[in-house]
Amino acid sequence: MSITGQQIRTARAALSWSVRDLADATGIGTATIVRYEMAETRVPKSRKNNLEILRTCFEAAGIEFVGTPDDAPGLRFHPAEG
């Protein structure tokens, strides 16, 4: 399932992560992350599996992506217990 630039930006904000925090957690460059986030409601173009890496990282941190890019894309936040 694809994720939008807005979902990436919102997930990062929900976790109170900076672009640098996300880059450090995923190994994806800060410029690439910013480019993805600027895609707004579109699915960012990605030549590598960067979107899958981002999604996996966010999911491990408690973010659940819902909807589709064309139909009510959003997220649910499941904060860690304790």
Automatic annotation (TrEMBL):
Q: In which domain of life is the source organism classified?
A: Bacteria
Instruction: Write down a Pfam family by its short name.
Output: HTH_3
Q: Any stretches that span the bilayer, and where are they?
A: none
InterPro entries in alphabetical order: Cro/C1-type_HTH, Lambda_DNA-bd_dom_sf
In terms of PROSITE patterns, this protein maps to: HTH_CROC1 (PS50943)
Residue ranges of the HTH cro/C1-type domain? Answer: 8-37
Name under which the protein is recorded: Helix-turn-helix domain-containing protein
Q: Give the organism the record lists.
A: Sulfitobacter aestuarii
